[in-house]
């Protein structure tokens, strides 16, 4: 645990601001990668993030869907804190059984997401959690998977929103809570 947790301000956003790392030209030239791993590695900061995400949506979801990979961290912790089910939205080809598949575009490529069907009763209220909202492609694809599975999307929670990439626009009227926007 870093020393920051003992002295930093108490809001989740202030922890993110203090601990967020940035890497220019990663994973390719002209991309500024925002790394939340230092934030997650600080126990006090991570607790503040989980509490913020859970509190913003409390009582409005029966399950959380975490998007591979860092979304898994958030979904598992919020699911535990809220005593609700956790769904894993995986990269293509990593789930057994019958799955729904969605193709989507990233800011630096394309990919495929999958969700196993029949994990929850039809109509279950699902909150999507991920670390970063950038162009919105990953979350939009996950939203389509949730809908196609017969669940009700109640909102999206992210730690960081990169506003200059306009990802929120791809999510239509879905309620989005971002702990920090830059």
TrEMBL record:
It catalyses: AMP + diphosphate = 5-phospho-alpha-D-ribose 1-diphosphate + adenine. The keyword Glycosyltransferase applies. Residues 46-159 form the Phosphoribosyltransferase domain. PANTHER family: ADENINE PHOSPHORIBOSYLTRANSFERASE. HAMAP family: Aden_phosphoribosyltr. Belongs to the purine/pyrimidine phosphoribosyltransferase family. GO terms for biological process: adenine salvage; AMP salvage; purine ribonucleoside salvage. Its EC number is 2.4.2.7. It is an enzyme of class 2 (transferase). The lineage of its organism: Bacteria, Bacillati, Actinomycetota, Actinomycetes, Micrococcales. This is Adenine phosphoribosyltransferase. Keywords: Cytoplasm, Glycosyltransferase, Purine salvage, Transferase. Homodimer. Pathway: Purine metabolism; AMP biosynthesis via salvage pathway; AMP from adenine: step 1/1. It comes from Cryobacterium flavum. Catalyzes a salvage reaction resulting in the formation of AMP, that is energically less costly than de novo synthesis. One of its GO terms (cellular component) is cytoplasm. The keyword Nuclease does not apply. It is found in: Cytoplasm. One of its GO terms (molecular function) is AMP binding.
């Amino acid at each position: 645990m870093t020393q920051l947790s003992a002295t930093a301000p108490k809001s989740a956003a202030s922890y993110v601001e203090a601990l967020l790392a940035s890497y220019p030209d990663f994973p390719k030239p002209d991309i500024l990668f925002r790394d939340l791993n230092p934030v997650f590695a600080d126990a006090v900061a991570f607790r503040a993030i989980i509490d913020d995400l859970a509190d913003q949506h409390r009582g409005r979801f029966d399950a959380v869907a975490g998007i591979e990979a860092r979304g898994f961290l958030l979904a598992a912790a919020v699911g535990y804190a809220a005593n609700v089910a956790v769904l894993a939205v995986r990269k293509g080809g990593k789930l057994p059984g019958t799955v729904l598949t969605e193709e989507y575009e990233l800011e630096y490529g394309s990919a495929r997401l999958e969700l196993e069907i029949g994990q929850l009763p039809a109509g279950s209220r699902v909150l999507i959690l991920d670390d970063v909202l950038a162009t919105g492609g990953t979350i939009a694809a996950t939203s389509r998977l949730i809908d196609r599975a017969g669940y009700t999307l109640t909102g999206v929670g992210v730690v960081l929103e990169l506003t200059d990439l306009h990802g929120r626009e791809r999510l239509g009227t879905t309620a989005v809570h971002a702990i920090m926007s830059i």
